Amino acid sequence: MDFGITCDAWWETRVSEVINLLPIREMRDEFYGKFYGNDINDIFIVLMCRQPEYNFKQRVRFNKKEKALYTDIMLDFDFFINATQEQRNKKVLDQILVELPVIISKYEFKNFDTLRFIDDIKIIFSKINIKD
User: Fold this and answer.
1) DSSP per residue over 20-39, as a string?
2) Tally of CB atoms within 10 A around 111
3) How far apart are CA 114 and CA 36, in angstroms?
4) Could you tell me the sign of the dihedral formed by the alpha carbons of 25, 26, 29, 34, in that order?
5) Of 20, 27, 17, nearest to 88 (Cα)?
6) Dist CA 119 CA 102 (whole Å)
7) 18: exposed, middle or buried (C-beta count within 10 Å: 0-12, 13-18, 19+)?
8) Cα–Cα distance measured from residue 99 to residue 94, given in angstroms and rounded to the nearest whole number
9) Quick one: CA dihedral 13, 47, 115, 22, positive or negative?
């Protein structure tokens, strides 16, 4: 499986610093050798944290041919502007763990082990030091 995380965020929200905290290369390597079922080959996440007046909407798309799930995780702009970096780090990790299973479940994949996939993400996240 291929797995990736990136962001589209206003610089003052410091979401890019959370991305820098994540061991992206190690995560890709970890998931590359994993098989969770035939229904999904790739999952790509975009952390969205933009000014509310732009009315960005969450995009969720599943490409059946590639078996690739692309999704935005919407982050609260005001929270990220006012939060400490530790709070930002924790919020992003928590938000991914809460929203991703819900998004995957909406597609009702018959052959994808969502619980094992989320458990593997939790293991990786548990190794991350979210302190400032």
Assistant:
1) HHS-HHHHHHHHHT----SS
2) 9
3) 7
4) negative
5) 17
6) 14
7) buried
8) 9
9) negative
Q: Alpha-carbon distance 81 to 77, whole Å?
A: 6
Scan for tokens 């939060």, then name that residue.
83
> Measured between alpha carbons, how far is 72 from 67 in angstroms, rounded to an integer?
17
pTM of this structure? 0.90
- By C-alpha distance, which of 104, 114, 38 is closest to 70? 104
Beta-bridge partners for 6: 46
Nearest-angstrom CA–CA distance, 14 and 9: 8
- pLDDT one-digit tens code per residue, 31-56: 988 999 999 999 999 999 999 999 99
Per the structure block, which two tokens stand in for 17?
């610093």
Tokens 């702009």, residue located: 77
Q: What is the pLDDT of residue 26?
A: 84
Query: Which amino acid is it at 117?
Result: F
Please provide the distance, in angstroms rounded to a whole number, between the alpha carbons at the two ends of the chain. 31
Residue 98 CA to residue 122 CA, distance in Å, equals: 11
Q: What are phi and psi of 103, to 5 degrees?
A: -65, -45
Look over the chain and give the mean of its residue pLDDT values, rounded to a whole number.
92
